[in-house]
Amino acid sequence: MKTVAGAIALALGIAIGLGHPARAEEKAWTKVRIVTEGAFAPWNYTNADGSLGGFEIDLYKDLCRRMKVECTIEAQSFDGMIPALNAGKFDAIIAGMSATPKREEVMAFSVAYGSTGQSFGVLKDGPLLNLPEKGKLFSLASDQAGAAAALQELKPMLKGKVIGVQSASIAATFLDKYLKDTVEIREYKTTEQHDLDLNAGRIDAVMASMAYLSNAVAKPENSAMTITGPRFQGGLLGRGSSVGLRKTDPELKAMFDKAIAEARDQGVIERLSQKYFGYDVTPR
User: Fold this and answer.
1) Residue 13 phi/psi, 5° resolution?
2) Cβ atoms within 10 A of the Cβ of 17, count?
3) Residue of 220, 222, 240, 283 with fewest CB within 10 Å of its CB?
4) What is the pTM of this model?
């Protein structure tokens, strides 16, 4: 009788367990593998000695210290980062990557740590120097009508022109969505490559983040370049640069969210912004 009762109890226990699986144990993070690009100054870049530098390099060190984890970082091409993350090669992407609705279909993001918007780089003696709405900021989220009007104003001047853009970037997504019927879009592995073609006259303009363009036009080799036209942010361009993470790592996301909020509130992000950009890129 005791044996039968025990068997019934065991069966009931199994059934209950199958119906209500126990919550998986939370992962305790002690080491985090980070990937960056090393070619997107001033967010991140590679120094002459091969070491990494930039806003995000200083920032990740501060965040890892706050999270009390050991972090490693290495560089690879931007367009392969998301597949590498989801394949388990890295745990986090810190590479000027904006949190966009499209990317959020396959990955998670921390809260944003920086936002500058996207604009156009052209040659000072080129045909696109005087693009309309120069320097004016338009939000694809909160000012859709204004952004649409600005795009319509741009189209006559951009008609038939060739615009360079980094592959897999939000600028590439923007051009494909709003200007593919107006311009020829030419994609490049890195932003530095499209700058070379712009200087050589092989393309008419480039589109990239305002932060990148501000740094690029200040380089001696890009002395013929300047920034023009409007600046766009929000909407499909995302809510700002954020740490890219796997959806299956909510504990790590919570750790980054807390560390970024602390760094923001304590003025660390503003201080690093001034050091590398010359202005505050703290998300508002």
Assistant:
1) -60, -40
2) 10
3) 220
4) 0.72
